[in-house]
Amino acid sequence: MNKKVKVYSTPTCPLCIRAKQFLKENAVSFEDIDVSMNHDAAQDMIKRSGQMGVPVIDIEGDLIIGFDKDKIKRALGI
Amino acid sequence: MYDLIIIGAGPAGITATVYAARKKMNFLVISGDIGGQAAWSGDIENYTGYQFITGPELTSKFEEHMRKYGVAMREGENVIDLKKIDDRIVIRTDKGQYESKTAIIASGKRSRELSVPGEKEFKNRGLTYCATCDGPLFAGKDVAVIGGGNSALDAVLQLMNIARRIYLINIVPHLTGDPVMIEKAHESDAVTVMNNAKVLEITGDGMVSGIKVRCEGEEKALSVEGVFVEIGLIPNSHFALSLDKNALGEIKVDCHNRTNIPGIFAAGDVTDVPEKQIIIAAGEGSKASLSAFKYLNQHR
Q: Does residue B229 sit at the A interface (CB-CB below 8 Å)?
């Protein structure tokens, strides 16, 4: 079953771009949330992750802060 | 035992890898990340063959090129110690230990830290080293940019369209960046430049709420929700204790990328090579790899 994945990112953040590339390469579909445009989502991300750095990747409600390939792989079982 | 271990996978390390693979050397790559500073770069317009490419795109091209050869890679692993014992180079990381006949250090540079109370505590909690990445999260907020060179001014110019008020905290008497950028910062009503100002502490509760600075001999508390640290870079050479370095901590190399220890080579921004550019780092990486190859042939 496909897991529900959200990526909180900004268009100018290189690691966000790399994280999204990585997901695409592994055929993982995800919702891309641009926190520079969506203020409410930005506040939500800050509140839930307790920090302000992007990317934050939400996999079935579990948050991964930053582009941590190992953690992403583990969370997705790939 | 490997013929070669390459430390780092930025432009220098990856290019060294491509050359080592083509020479069919038995080698390993150890790196915390892929792309290094290039992955953090915005627009690149001076890498020959690409009139325009972004840092992440160029990093992907580099990685693709390297992976084509099916290289052995330890990603997400950081080198703690490197020393030569007899004819072996022994490299200890946070996850293991490896031995090799030669090594190329291409570990690049990282952001310099302020080293003030609150910096570690509030990292990513309002304090960031990447204005490009995290700037948009500070829409409508008051922020401080620490530094006075081009990277600090670049951050100020980016934040001018995002933040409400920007304090530029500069430790020396004058800003040192490009005049065009300095002019833009001075022209903006949103920007307050504070020269001769030293950051003493980052304050807050969970998230950043202010900074304390000493400006012209007077202590001031500024209320800000964001702190952007842009005070330059330092080389990742701390693990190579026995290598000769210059005053900046850059590893000294000759024009063959040899360090003071035979069999240990270095390339790219971690070295004292003049000019830090992606294309220079890449070229240095290829030279280092060819030098390691020659060294192995001479020491069989």
A: no
